Amino acid sequence: MTVIDGYGEIFGVHTQATTKIFLYTWLSHYLFRFCAIVLTTHFTMKQAYRTKSLTTDVNNRHLDISTKEELYLFSNQIISHSMEFTTCDFFTLNAHFITSTIAAVTTYFIVLLQYVH
């Protein structure tokens, strides 16, 4: 539906102002949701990588044996599991996913414009 509405907006099919308002409101709402989800996962992954380095730094300090053992177990668990958010193992949700999506949509509209003219 978005592609058809985008096509209609580019080629002037939509003439009513309310249709344009609904289209732009709908697009901006879903664009905001998409960016919020992807950026949240991106910053969560950055914090997880930061946690890896912090546990290593803290473990190198002079602490008692039980604390060092707990930090060692925690750091092993963090290192052994990759911290990624994926969509059913198809795409990794990070900041590069936003640019890839924008590039794919732009390419699609360029191809669509070539077939019209």
UniProtKB/TrEMBL annotation:
Position of the signal peptide: none
GO CC, any one term: plasma membrane
Cellular localisation: Cell membrane
Membrane topology of this protein: Multi-pass membrane protein
Main localisation: membrane
InterPro entries on file: 7TM_chemorcpt
Superkingdom: Eukaryota
Keyword annotations: Cell membrane, Membrane, Transmembrane, Transmembrane helix
One Gene Ontology term from the biological process aspect of the record: sensory perception of taste
Protein name: Gustatory receptor
Organism annotation: Aphis gossypii
Top-level taxonomy: Eukaryota, Metazoa, Ecdysozoa, Arthropoda, Hexapoda
